[in-house]
Amino acid sequence: MHQPPERINLAIIGCGIRGQEFLENCLKRNDIHLTAIADPDEQMNARSQAILEKYNVKNVRFYNKGKFDYLELYKNETIDAVIIASPWEDHISQAIAAIDYGIIPGLEVCGANNLEECWAIVQKSEEKNIPVMILENVCFRRDMMAVFNMVKQGLFGELLLCHGGFQQDLRSLKFNNGKERRGFGVQLGEQGFSEAKWRTQYSIDRNGDLYPTHGFGPLSNLLDINKGNRLTSIASFATKSRGLHKYIIESPFGGPDCPSASLDFKLGDIITTVFQTIHGETIVLTHDTNNPRANNFGFRVQGTEGLWQDLASGNLEDGLIYLEKYATQKNKWDNSLDLLSQYDHPLWKKYKKETTEVVGYGGMDFLVLHTFIEAVKHKTPFPLDVYDLATWYAITPLSEKSIAEGGQVQIFPDFTKGKWIDRKNNFGIEHI
Ligand SMILES: NC(=O)c1ccc[n+]([C@@H]2O[C@H](COP(=O)([O-])OP(=O)(O)OC[C@H]3O[C@@H](n4cnc5c(N)ncnc54)[C@H](O)[C@@H]3O)[C@@H](O)[C@H]2O)c1
Fold it and tell me: Is the entire prediction scored with pTM above 0.90?
Protein backbone atom coordinates (compact mmCIF):
# COMPACT_ATOMS: atom_id res chain seq x y z
CA MET A 1 0.00 0.00 0.00
CA HIS A 2 1.18 3.53 -0.79
CA GLN A 3 2.55 5.28 2.31
CA PRO A 4 1.35 8.91 2.05
CA PRO A 5 3.99 11.60 2.62
CA GLU A 6 3.59 13.91 5.61
CA ARG A 7 3.77 16.93 3.35
CA ILE A 8 3.46 17.61 -0.32
CA ASN A 9 5.26 20.33 -2.27
CA LEU A 10 2.87 22.74 -3.91
CA ALA A 11 2.93 25.91 -6.04
CA ILE A 12 0.30 28.42 -7.09
CA ILE A 13 0.01 29.82 -10.62
CA GLY A 14 -2.03 33.02 -10.67
CA CYS A 15 -2.08 34.34 -7.13
CA GLY A 16 -4.71 37.06 -7.37
CA ILE A 17 -7.73 37.32 -5.12
CA ARG A 18 -8.71 33.65 -5.39
CA GLY A 19 -5.13 32.40 -5.40
CA GLN A 20 -4.49 34.35 -2.19
CA GLU A 21 -7.44 32.59 -0.54
CA PHE A 22 -5.86 29.28 -1.52
CA LEU A 23 -2.50 30.54 -0.33
CA GLU A 24 -3.82 31.37 3.12
CA ASN A 25 -5.78 28.12 3.38
CA CYS A 26 -2.65 26.19 2.35
CA LEU A 27 -0.59 27.98 5.02
CA LYS A 28 -3.12 26.96 7.66
CA ARG A 29 -2.36 23.28 6.95
CA ASN A 30 0.70 21.41 8.13
CA ASP A 31 0.76 18.96 5.22
CA ILE A 32 1.64 21.49 2.51
CA HIS A 33 5.05 22.92 1.74
CA LEU A 34 4.33 25.94 -0.43
CA THR A 35 7.47 26.39 -2.49
CA ALA A 36 6.64 28.96 -5.18
CA ILE A 37 4.17 31.37 -6.72
CA ALA A 38 4.02 32.45 -10.38
CA ASP A 39 2.25 35.72 -11.04
CA PRO A 40 3.43 38.66 -13.18
CA ASP A 41 1.49 41.30 -11.21
CA GLU A 42 3.58 43.09 -8.58
CA GLN A 43 0.55 44.53 -6.79
CA MET A 44 -0.83 41.01 -6.32
CA ASN A 45 2.58 39.64 -5.34
CA ALA A 46 2.86 42.29 -2.61
CA ARG A 47 -0.47 41.08 -1.21
CA SER A 48 0.72 37.45 -1.33
CA GLN A 49 3.95 38.45 0.38
CA ALA A 50 1.93 40.08 3.19
CA ILE A 51 0.04 36.79 3.69
CA LEU A 52 3.32 34.86 3.82
CA GLU A 53 4.60 37.30 6.45
CA LYS A 54 1.40 36.95 8.49
CA TYR A 55 2.14 33.21 8.74
CA ASN A 56 5.87 33.80 9.15
CA VAL A 57 6.63 31.73 6.04
CA LYS A 58 9.94 32.42 4.31
CA ASN A 59 11.72 31.17 1.20
CA VAL A 60 8.74 31.05 -1.12
CA ARG A 61 10.10 31.84 -4.58
CA PHE A 62 8.22 34.28 -6.83
CA TYR A 63 8.22 33.80 -10.60
CA ASN A 64 7.14 37.24 -11.73
CA LYS A 65 8.87 37.80 -15.05
CA GLY A 66 5.88 37.83 -17.34
CA LYS A 67 3.12 35.64 -18.69
CA PHE A 68 5.24 32.51 -19.27
CA ASP A 69 7.42 32.54 -16.16
CA TYR A 70 5.31 29.71 -14.74
CA LEU A 71 7.23 27.47 -17.15
CA GLU A 72 10.43 28.36 -15.28
CA LEU A 73 8.65 27.46 -12.06
CA TYR A 74 7.70 24.05 -13.46
CA LYS A 75 11.28 23.56 -14.62
CA ASN A 76 13.05 24.67 -11.43
CA GLU A 77 10.82 23.59 -8.57
CA THR A 78 10.34 20.07 -7.26
CA ILE A 79 6.61 20.04 -6.72
CA ASP A 80 3.93 17.37 -6.52
CA ALA A 81 0.99 19.56 -7.43
CA VAL A 82 0.02 23.04 -8.60
CA ILE A 83 -3.08 25.13 -8.04
CA ILE A 84 -4.02 27.16 -11.13
CA ALA A 85 -6.04 30.28 -10.29
CA SER A 86 -5.12 32.50 -13.22
CA PRO A 87 -7.43 34.18 -15.77
CA TRP A 88 -9.61 31.68 -17.66
CA GLU A 89 -7.79 31.91 -20.97
CA ASP A 90 -4.68 30.21 -19.60
CA HIS A 91 -6.05 27.47 -17.33
CA ILE A 92 -5.80 24.56 -19.72
CA SER A 93 -2.48 25.46 -21.35
CA GLN A 94 -0.92 25.96 -17.89
CA ALA A 95 -2.35 22.62 -16.73
CA ILE A 96 -1.12 20.76 -19.81
CA ALA A 97 2.37 22.19 -19.29
CA ALA A 98 2.25 21.05 -15.64
CA ILE A 99 1.36 17.51 -16.72
CA ASP A 100 4.33 17.54 -19.09
CA TYR A 101 6.54 18.16 -16.05
CA GLY A 102 4.80 15.34 -14.11
CA ILE A 103 3.00 17.83 -11.86
CA ILE A 104 -0.63 17.26 -10.83
CA PRO A 105 -2.79 20.30 -11.61
CA GLY A 106 -5.85 21.48 -9.67
CA LEU A 107 -7.71 24.03 -11.78
CA GLU A 108 -9.97 26.80 -10.59
CA VAL A 109 -13.32 27.02 -12.31
CA CYS A 110 -14.29 28.57 -15.66
CA GLY A 111 -15.39 27.69 -19.16
CA ALA A 112 -13.10 26.58 -21.98
CA ASN A 113 -11.87 28.77 -24.81
CA ASN A 114 -12.88 26.01 -27.22
CA LEU A 115 -13.71 22.30 -27.39
CA GLU A 116 -10.29 21.36 -28.72
CA GLU A 117 -8.57 22.29 -25.47
CA CYS A 118 -11.05 20.14 -23.50
CA TRP A 119 -10.02 17.14 -25.60
CA ALA A 120 -6.36 18.14 -25.31
CA ILE A 121 -6.29 18.04 -21.50
CA VAL A 122 -8.07 14.67 -21.43
CA GLN A 123 -5.61 13.27 -23.93
CA LYS A 124 -2.58 14.66 -22.08
CA SER A 125 -3.76 13.39 -18.70
CA GLU A 126 -4.42 9.90 -20.13
CA GLU A 127 -1.13 9.82 -22.05
CA LYS A 128 1.02 10.83 -19.06
CA ASN A 129 -1.14 9.13 -16.44
CA ILE A 130 -1.27 12.32 -14.39
CA PRO A 131 -4.63 13.04 -12.74
CA VAL A 132 -6.35 16.43 -12.89
CA MET A 133 -8.88 17.91 -10.50
CA ILE A 134 -11.33 20.72 -11.06
CA LEU A 135 -11.45 22.72 -7.82
CA GLU A 136 -15.21 23.31 -7.93
CA ASN A 137 -15.99 24.41 -4.39
CA VAL A 138 -19.79 24.67 -4.80
CA CYS A 139 -19.89 20.87 -5.13
CA PHE A 140 -18.91 20.88 -1.45
CA ARG A 141 -21.53 23.42 -0.35
CA ARG A 142 -23.25 22.15 2.75
CA ASP A 143 -26.81 22.09 1.42
CA MET A 144 -25.70 20.51 -1.87
CA MET A 145 -23.85 17.76 -0.02
CA ALA A 146 -26.88 17.08 2.20
CA VAL A 147 -29.07 16.88 -0.90
CA PHE A 148 -26.44 14.64 -2.55
CA ASN A 149 -26.68 12.36 0.47
CA MET A 150 -30.48 12.30 0.28
CA VAL A 151 -30.50 11.63 -3.47
CA LYS A 152 -28.09 8.73 -3.06
CA GLN A 153 -30.26 7.31 -0.27
CA GLY A 154 -33.30 7.46 -2.55
CA LEU A 155 -35.33 10.17 -0.80
CA PHE A 156 -36.08 11.97 -4.06
CA GLY A 157 -36.96 8.75 -5.92
CA GLU A 158 -35.67 8.78 -9.48
CA LEU A 159 -34.30 12.17 -10.53
CA LEU A 160 -36.11 13.94 -13.38
CA LEU A 161 -35.04 17.59 -13.49
CA CYS A 162 -32.28 19.71 -11.97
CA HIS A 163 -31.81 23.46 -12.13
CA GLY A 164 -28.75 25.47 -11.20
CA GLY A 165 -26.77 28.46 -12.31
CA PHE A 166 -24.50 31.34 -11.59
CA GLN A 167 -26.77 34.18 -10.58
CA GLN A 168 -24.82 36.99 -9.03
CA ASP A 169 -24.64 40.73 -9.73
CA LEU A 170 -21.07 41.08 -11.01
CA ARG A 171 -21.37 44.65 -12.29
CA SER A 172 -19.11 46.15 -9.62
CA LEU A 173 -16.57 43.38 -10.23
CA LYS A 174 -16.59 43.70 -14.02
CA PHE A 175 -16.00 47.45 -13.58
CA ASN A 176 -14.12 48.85 -10.63
CA ASN A 177 -11.84 51.67 -9.54
CA GLY A 178 -8.59 49.89 -10.33
CA LYS A 179 -7.77 49.41 -6.62
CA GLU A 180 -10.38 47.16 -5.05
CA ARG A 181 -12.17 44.08 -6.33
CA ARG A 182 -15.60 45.60 -5.78
CA GLY A 183 -14.40 49.20 -5.78
CA PHE A 184 -17.00 51.32 -7.45
CA GLY A 185 -15.85 52.71 -10.76
CA VAL A 186 -16.23 51.90 -14.46
CA GLN A 187 -12.66 50.91 -15.27
CA LEU A 188 -11.65 47.69 -16.96
CA GLY A 189 -8.68 46.15 -18.76
CA GLU A 190 -5.32 47.56 -17.69
CA GLN A 191 -7.11 50.26 -15.63
CA GLY A 192 -9.17 47.69 -13.71
CA PHE A 193 -8.22 45.60 -10.70
CA SER A 194 -8.41 41.80 -10.38
CA GLU A 195 -11.16 40.32 -12.60
CA ALA A 196 -12.03 43.72 -14.15
CA LYS A 197 -8.62 43.43 -15.83
CA TRP A 198 -9.63 40.39 -17.88
CA ARG A 199 -13.03 38.91 -17.11
CA THR A 200 -15.02 41.84 -18.49
CA GLN A 201 -13.51 41.33 -21.94
CA TYR A 202 -15.41 38.02 -22.13
CA SER A 203 -18.68 39.96 -21.83
CA ILE A 204 -17.56 42.02 -24.83
CA ASP A 205 -16.38 39.08 -26.95
CA ARG A 206 -18.57 36.06 -26.16
CA ASN A 207 -22.25 35.19 -25.94
CA GLY A 208 -22.65 31.93 -24.03
CA ASP A 209 -22.68 30.57 -20.50
CA LEU A 210 -19.28 31.93 -19.44
CA TYR A 211 -19.25 30.47 -15.93
CA PRO A 212 -21.04 27.14 -15.95
CA THR A 213 -19.35 25.00 -13.30
CA HIS A 214 -20.69 26.44 -10.02
CA GLY A 215 -24.21 25.63 -11.14
CA PHE A 216 -23.47 22.51 -13.14
CA GLY A 217 -20.87 20.74 -10.97
CA PRO A 218 -23.12 19.87 -8.02
CA LEU A 219 -25.85 18.66 -10.40
CA SER A 220 -23.33 16.56 -12.31
CA ASN A 221 -22.51 14.78 -9.04
CA LEU A 222 -26.17 14.16 -8.26
CA LEU A 223 -26.81 12.75 -11.73
CA ASP A 224 -23.61 10.64 -11.95
CA ILE A 225 -22.56 12.38 -15.15
CA ASN A 226 -19.53 10.55 -16.64
CA LYS A 227 -20.10 7.86 -13.98
CA GLY A 228 -22.96 5.70 -15.20
CA ASN A 229 -24.76 8.56 -16.94
CA ARG A 230 -23.82 11.11 -19.57
CA LEU A 231 -24.95 14.25 -21.32
CA THR A 232 -26.27 13.75 -24.82
CA SER A 233 -27.28 17.24 -25.96
CA ILE A 234 -27.28 20.92 -25.07
CA ALA A 235 -29.06 24.04 -26.34
CA SER A 236 -28.74 27.66 -25.17
CA PHE A 237 -30.67 30.89 -25.54
CA ALA A 238 -29.63 34.44 -24.72
CA THR A 239 -31.62 37.51 -23.76
CA LYS A 240 -30.66 40.89 -25.14
CA SER A 241 -27.70 42.66 -23.60
CA ARG A 242 -28.66 45.68 -21.50
CA GLY A 243 -27.32 45.59 -17.93
CA LEU A 244 -23.64 46.46 -18.36
CA HIS A 245 -24.20 49.47 -20.63
CA LYS A 246 -26.98 50.73 -18.35
CA TYR A 247 -24.68 50.35 -15.34
CA ILE A 248 -21.93 52.40 -16.98
CA ILE A 249 -24.10 55.28 -18.14
CA GLU A 250 -25.98 55.48 -14.82
CA SER A 251 -22.88 55.18 -12.63
CA PRO A 252 -21.76 58.33 -10.78
CA PHE A 253 -18.22 57.32 -11.87
CA GLY A 254 -19.19 56.88 -15.52
CA GLY A 255 -21.95 58.53 -17.51
CA PRO A 256 -22.93 58.59 -21.20
CA ASP A 257 -19.72 60.34 -22.25
CA CYS A 258 -17.15 58.17 -20.46
CA PRO A 259 -14.97 55.83 -22.59
CA SER A 260 -16.62 52.66 -21.21
CA ALA A 261 -20.03 53.91 -22.45
CA SER A 262 -19.05 53.15 -26.04
CA LEU A 263 -18.39 49.46 -25.33
CA ASP A 264 -20.56 46.97 -27.14
CA PHE A 265 -21.35 43.85 -25.09
CA LYS A 266 -21.95 40.61 -26.93
CA LEU A 267 -22.95 38.64 -23.81
CA GLY A 268 -26.72 38.36 -23.38
CA ASP A 269 -27.74 39.38 -19.88
CA ILE A 270 -29.32 36.04 -19.06
CA ILE A 271 -28.24 32.83 -20.74
CA THR A 272 -30.46 29.78 -20.35
CA THR A 273 -29.04 26.38 -21.24
CA VAL A 274 -30.92 23.09 -21.37
CA PHE A 275 -29.27 19.66 -21.32
CA GLN A 276 -30.53 16.13 -21.91
CA THR A 277 -28.96 13.08 -20.29
CA ILE A 278 -28.91 9.57 -21.71
CA HIS A 279 -31.05 8.32 -18.79
CA GLY A 280 -33.83 10.82 -19.46
CA GLU A 281 -33.16 13.66 -17.02
CA THR A 282 -33.08 17.30 -18.05
CA ILE A 283 -30.94 20.07 -16.57
CA VAL A 284 -31.52 23.83 -16.81
CA LEU A 285 -28.59 26.17 -16.23
CA THR A 286 -28.73 29.96 -15.90
CA HIS A 287 -25.95 32.54 -16.24
CA ASP A 288 -27.14 35.89 -14.88
CA THR A 289 -24.49 38.44 -13.88
CA ASN A 290 -25.28 41.82 -15.47
CA ASN A 291 -28.28 43.21 -13.60
CA PRO A 292 -29.26 44.01 -10.02
CA ARG A 293 -30.12 40.90 -8.06
CA ALA A 294 -29.46 39.10 -4.78
CA ASN A 295 -27.22 36.04 -5.04
CA ASN A 296 -28.51 32.56 -5.39
CA PHE A 297 -27.57 29.70 -7.65
CA GLY A 298 -31.21 28.71 -8.17
CA PHE A 299 -30.73 25.02 -7.47
CA ARG A 300 -33.76 22.79 -7.86
CA VAL A 301 -33.55 19.03 -7.56
CA GLN A 302 -36.68 17.15 -8.52
CA GLY A 303 -37.47 13.46 -8.59
CA THR A 304 -40.42 11.10 -8.57
CA GLU A 305 -40.82 11.55 -4.77
CA GLY A 306 -40.62 15.34 -4.55
CA LEU A 307 -38.28 18.29 -4.82
CA TRP A 308 -35.99 20.80 -3.09
CA GLN A 309 -35.32 24.40 -4.12
CA ASP A 310 -32.52 26.64 -2.92
CA LEU A 311 -33.79 30.15 -2.29
CA ALA A 312 -30.71 31.92 -0.96
CA SER A 313 -27.12 30.79 -0.67
CA GLY A 314 -26.09 27.53 0.85
CA ASN A 315 -27.33 27.32 4.44
CA LEU A 316 -29.43 24.31 5.31
CA GLU A 317 -32.40 26.56 6.13
CA ASP A 318 -32.17 28.54 2.89
CA GLY A 319 -34.40 26.23 0.88
CA LEU A 320 -37.88 24.81 0.55
CA ILE A 321 -38.59 21.12 0.30
CA TYR A 322 -41.52 18.94 -0.54
CA LEU A 323 -40.97 15.20 -0.34
CA GLU A 324 -44.31 13.39 -0.34
CA LYS A 325 -43.37 10.86 2.33
CA TYR A 326 -41.93 13.44 4.72
CA ALA A 327 -44.12 16.51 4.13
CA THR A 328 -45.84 17.90 7.23
CA GLN A 329 -48.84 18.95 5.08
CA LYS A 330 -50.06 17.68 1.74
CA ASN A 331 -48.83 19.85 -1.17
CA LYS A 332 -47.28 22.47 1.14
CA TRP A 333 -43.61 23.41 1.27
CA ASP A 334 -41.56 22.75 4.39
CA ASN A 335 -38.45 24.69 5.25
CA SER A 336 -35.46 22.54 4.31
CA LEU A 337 -33.66 22.83 7.66
CA ASP A 338 -35.06 19.74 9.41
CA LEU A 339 -34.50 17.23 6.62
CA LEU A 340 -31.19 18.65 5.40
CA SER A 341 -29.81 18.69 8.98
CA GLN A 342 -30.83 15.06 9.38
CA TYR A 343 -28.89 14.23 6.21
CA ASP A 344 -25.99 16.63 6.79
CA HIS A 345 -23.07 15.07 4.93
CA PRO A 346 -20.59 13.10 7.08
CA LEU A 347 -17.69 15.20 5.80
CA TRP A 348 -19.33 18.37 7.14
CA LYS A 349 -19.69 16.67 10.53
CA LYS A 350 -16.18 15.22 10.50
CA TYR A 351 -14.57 18.58 9.70
CA LYS A 352 -16.87 20.79 11.75
CA LYS A 353 -13.99 22.75 13.27
CA GLU A 354 -11.89 23.07 10.10
CA THR A 355 -14.82 24.28 8.00
CA THR A 356 -15.10 27.34 10.27
CA GLU A 357 -11.41 28.21 10.10
CA VAL A 358 -10.84 28.91 6.42
CA VAL A 359 -10.81 32.14 4.45
CA GLY A 360 -12.80 32.55 1.22
CA TYR A 361 -16.21 30.99 0.89
CA GLY A 362 -16.34 29.05 4.15
CA GLY A 363 -16.40 25.30 4.68
CA MET A 364 -16.71 24.38 1.03
CA ASP A 365 -13.30 25.97 0.46
CA PHE A 366 -11.82 23.77 3.18
CA LEU A 367 -13.37 20.64 1.67
CA VAL A 368 -12.32 21.32 -1.92
CA LEU A 369 -8.70 21.92 -0.93
CA HIS A 370 -8.69 19.02 1.53
CA THR A 371 -10.05 16.66 -1.13
CA PHE A 372 -7.34 17.74 -3.57
CA ILE A 373 -4.46 17.47 -1.10
CA GLU A 374 -5.56 14.15 0.40
CA ALA A 375 -5.95 12.55 -3.04
CA VAL A 376 -2.48 13.79 -4.07
CA LYS A 377 -0.98 12.44 -0.82
CA HIS A 378 -2.75 9.09 -0.97
CA LYS A 379 -2.61 8.74 -4.78
CA THR A 380 -6.36 8.09 -4.83
CA PRO A 381 -8.62 9.14 -7.72
CA PHE A 382 -10.03 12.65 -7.68
CA PRO A 383 -13.82 12.76 -7.28
CA LEU A 384 -13.95 15.68 -9.75
CA ASP A 385 -11.56 14.55 -12.43
CA VAL A 386 -10.32 15.38 -15.91
CA TYR A 387 -13.50 14.04 -17.58
CA ASP A 388 -15.63 16.21 -15.32
CA LEU A 389 -13.39 19.17 -16.00
CA ALA A 390 -13.58 18.70 -19.77
CA THR A 391 -17.36 18.21 -19.66
CA TRP A 392 -18.07 21.20 -17.44
CA TYR A 393 -15.62 23.54 -19.21
CA ALA A 394 -17.06 22.45 -22.59
CA ILE A 395 -20.44 23.96 -21.72
CA THR A 396 -19.12 27.43 -22.58
CA PRO A 397 -18.12 26.84 -26.24
CA LEU A 398 -21.11 24.56 -26.83
CA SER A 399 -23.60 27.07 -25.45
CA GLU A 400 -21.91 29.81 -27.47
CA LYS A 401 -22.24 27.78 -30.67
CA SER A 402 -25.87 26.95 -29.94
CA ILE A 403 -26.75 30.63 -29.38
CA ALA A 404 -24.90 31.64 -32.55
CA GLU A 405 -27.05 29.10 -34.43
CA GLY A 406 -30.31 30.42 -32.99
CA GLY A 407 -30.63 27.86 -30.19
CA GLN A 408 -29.68 24.81 -32.27
CA VAL A 409 -29.23 21.62 -30.27
CA GLN A 410 -25.57 20.53 -30.09
CA ILE A 411 -24.43 16.96 -29.55
CA PHE A 412 -22.52 16.77 -26.27
CA PRO A 413 -19.15 15.04 -26.69
CA ASP A 414 -18.37 12.01 -24.53
CA PHE A 415 -14.95 12.87 -23.14
CA THR A 416 -14.75 9.47 -21.43
CA LYS A 417 -15.01 7.71 -24.82
CA GLY A 418 -17.41 5.13 -23.45
CA LYS A 419 -15.81 4.69 -20.04
CA TRP A 420 -18.80 6.48 -18.43
CA ILE A 421 -20.69 3.18 -18.52
CA ASP A 422 -18.46 1.50 -15.93
CA ARG A 423 -17.05 4.46 -14.02
CA LYS A 424 -18.27 4.80 -10.42
CA ASN A 425 -19.25 8.01 -8.66
CA ASN A 426 -16.66 8.60 -5.93
CA PHE A 427 -17.82 12.04 -4.84
CA GLY A 428 -18.27 12.65 -1.13
CA ILE A 429 -16.92 9.33 0.02
CA GLU A 430 -15.61 9.44 3.52
CA HIS A 431 -12.09 8.12 3.21
CA ILE A 432 -10.65 11.63 3.29
N1 LIG B 1 -14.32 29.01 -6.81
C2 LIG B 1 -14.62 30.23 -6.45
O3 LIG B 1 -15.42 30.46 -5.55
C4 LIG B 1 -13.93 31.36 -7.14
C5 LIG B 1 -14.02 32.66 -6.66
C6 LIG B 1 -13.32 33.66 -7.35
C7 LIG B 1 -12.59 33.37 -8.49
N8 LIG B 1 -12.55 32.10 -8.93
C9 LIG B 1 -11.77 31.73 -10.11
O10 LIG B 1 -10.39 31.86 -9.79
C11 LIG B 1 -9.65 32.26 -10.94
C12 LIG B 1 -8.91 33.55 -10.64
O13 LIG B 1 -9.83 34.56 -10.32
P14 LIG B 1 -9.44 35.79 -9.38
O15 LIG B 1 -10.71 36.37 -8.89
O16 LIG B 1 -8.41 35.41 -8.41
O17 LIG B 1 -8.80 36.78 -10.47
P18 LIG B 1 -7.59 37.80 -10.25
O19 LIG B 1 -7.56 38.65 -11.44
O20 LIG B 1 -7.75 38.45 -8.90
O21 LIG B 1 -6.33 36.86 -10.19
C22 LIG B 1 -5.75 36.29 -11.33
C23 LIG B 1 -4.24 36.38 -11.14
O24 LIG B 1 -3.61 35.68 -12.20
C25 LIG B 1 -2.45 36.44 -12.55
N26 LIG B 1 -2.01 36.07 -13.89
C27 LIG B 1 -2.39 36.59 -15.08
N28 LIG B 1 -1.73 35.99 -16.08
C29 LIG B 1 -0.91 35.08 -15.51
C30 LIG B 1 0.05 34.16 -16.02
N31 LIG B 1 0.26 34.03 -17.34
N32 LIG B 1 0.75 33.40 -15.15
C33 LIG B 1 0.52 33.50 -13.82
N34 LIG B 1 -0.36 34.36 -13.28
C35 LIG B 1 -1.08 35.12 -14.12
C36 LIG B 1 -2.90 37.87 -12.43
O37 LIG B 1 -1.80 38.76 -12.33
C38 LIG B 1 -3.73 37.81 -11.16
O39 LIG B 1 -2.95 38.06 -10.01
C40 LIG B 1 -10.69 32.35 -12.06
O41 LIG B 1 -10.78 31.13 -12.72
C42 LIG B 1 -11.97 32.63 -11.32
O43 LIG B 1 -13.09 32.28 -12.04
C44 LIG B 1 -13.20 31.09 -8.28
Answer: yes
Q: How far is the CA of 109 from the centre of ligand 1 (A)?
A: 10
20, 23, 37, 39, best to mutate for ligand 1 pocket (most atoms within 8 Å of CB): 39
Query: For the segment 105-159, what is each residue's pLDDT rounded down to a tens digit?
Result: 999 999 999 999 999 999 999 999 999 999 999 999 999 999 999 999 999 999 9
Q: How far apart are CA 384 and CA 370, in angstroms?
A: 13
Q: What share of the chain is helix, strand, coil (3-state, %, to 5)?
A: 40, 20, 45
**pLDDT over 80 (residue 289):** yes
Domains of the chain from N-terminus onward = 8-136 (3.40.50.720), 139-347+386-421 (3.30.360.10)
Please tell me if the CB atom of residue 288 comes closer than 6 angstroms to any atom of ligand 1: no
For a ligand 1 pocket test, name from 62, 74, 86, 199 the mutation site with the most ligand atoms within 8 angstroms of its C-beta. Answer: 86
Atom of ligand 1 nearest to the CA of 368: 1
| pLDDT at residue 313 is higher than 80 | no
Which burial class, exposed, middle or buried, applies to 359 when counting CB atoms under 10 A from its CB (0-12, 13-18, 19+)?
A: middle
